Amino acid sequence: MEVLLKGVQRLGLDLGEEQIALFQRYFQELVEWNRRTNLTAITDYREVQAKHFLDSLTVSLAIPKDVATSGTLMDVGSGAGFPGLPLKLLWPGLRVTLVESVGKKAAFLRHLTDTLGLEGVEVCNERSETLSHDPRMRETFDVVVSRAVADLSVLAELTLPFCKPGGRVVAQKKSGIEDELKRAERAISLLGGALETVEVVDLKEIGEPRWLVVLT
């Protein structure tokens, strides 16, 4: 896990031996399941460390410390667990809900959660549009995260309804998002949200800048 560890140090984070072992097992399970279920096009050992694990952990830069230790986080469109599960491995006290509408991917997430022995993780095999009408989920989470799911105007509708008042959405984007931000202004405002900040993360291990769009 050399690539992951170097990147984590650049982010100012720390992983213990048990956490590193869990990331190693995560990689093994991902590759094994990917042989029969289309989870990801990235399966190379170094690439998974950089573009899945480390990329997911960049979100930590936009998450308040009190949330990290004991807060609630929802990952919308989790896929193979990114970025939600790497954040859970980083912060074991975080309570995480993974939303994934594709049944086979949700099955992998349940299997992985059991295999890694993670507590405080719930997998919802449901569309977020439907789930947002569930009183148990609406306005419940401290942080809602999402990676490469949709245009920001659509993503605001898929994520902001789950935020507590005062909570935040952290959306991972690639560069060149100025037009997308402008298009999303009205949708964000109608949903009671506001753009707080846009952070640029540039790690050589990943190879290209990532933008963290933070909505409150």
The helix-strand sequence is HHHHEHEHEHEHEHEE
Main sheet characteristics: 7 strands, mixed
Number of helices: 9
Strand content range:
15-25%
Keywords for this structure?
7 strands; 7-stranded mixed beta sheet; alpha/beta; 216 residues
Kindly describe this structure.
There is one protein chain. 42% of the residues lie in helices and 21% in strands. The chain is of the alpha/beta class. The protein has a seven-stranded mixed β-sheet, sandwiched between helices. The longest helix is centred in the first third of the chain and has 18 residues, at 17-34. The mean pLDDT is 94.
Write a concise synopsis of the structure shown:
With 216 residues, the chain is of the alpha/beta class. It is 42% helix and 21% strand. The mean pLDDT is 94.
Present the secondary structure layout.
Layout: H1 2-10, H2 17-34, H3 45-57, H4 65-70, E1 72-76, H5 84-90, E2 95-99, H6 103-115, E3 121-124, H7 128-131, E4 141-147, H8 152-159, E5 163-174, H9 178-190, E6 195-201, E7 210-215
Parallel strand pairs: 1-2, 1-4, 2-3, 4-5
Antiparallel strand pairs: 5-7, 6-7
